[in-house]
Write a structure and sequence with these properties.
118 residues, single chain, 5 strands, alpha/beta
Length: 118
């Protein structure tokens, strides 16, 4: 089983970038949700989750990401993801997540576009 790691690697104004590595299951999803809540409560309005080191998300992990999305929308913020594997991108597409969260191929394009939104 893959280990899970989460780091806030950038915090600039209302934008925070979180790097996620490993399997997003109930524990990983809870860690993301907890960190997202703290950032949103601290004034962050744009969260970018970089999933370049994540290959698998289970259904509980997805449901926890949806909770993060709901909380972000409640504060009129933006949730974005970048560096998705093809299988995760397909899962997000099937779920319709791209209708409510922003999806980017890489971190550089995400940061460039998200900087214009703020």
């Amino acid at each position: 089983m893959e280990t899970f790691e989460l780091r806030t690697v950038q915090r600039q104004g209302e934008l925070a970038v979180l790097e996620v590595a490993g399997y997003i299951n109930n524990e990983g999803g809870e860690a993301i949700a907890s960190e997202a809540r703290a950032l949103l409560d601290g004034g962050c309005r744009t969260l970018l989750l970089d999933l370049h080191a994540t290959r698998i998300i289970n259904s509980i992990g997805i449901s926890l990401l949806l909770e993060v999305l709901e909380r972000t929308l409640e504060v009129k913020g933006t949730l974005a993801f970048c560096c998705l594997t093809p299988s995760i991108a397909k899962t997000f597409q099937i779920m319709g997540l791209g209708q409510y969260a922003r999806l980017f191929p890489d971190r550089a394009s995400a940061l460039a576009e998200l900087a214009q939104v703020r």
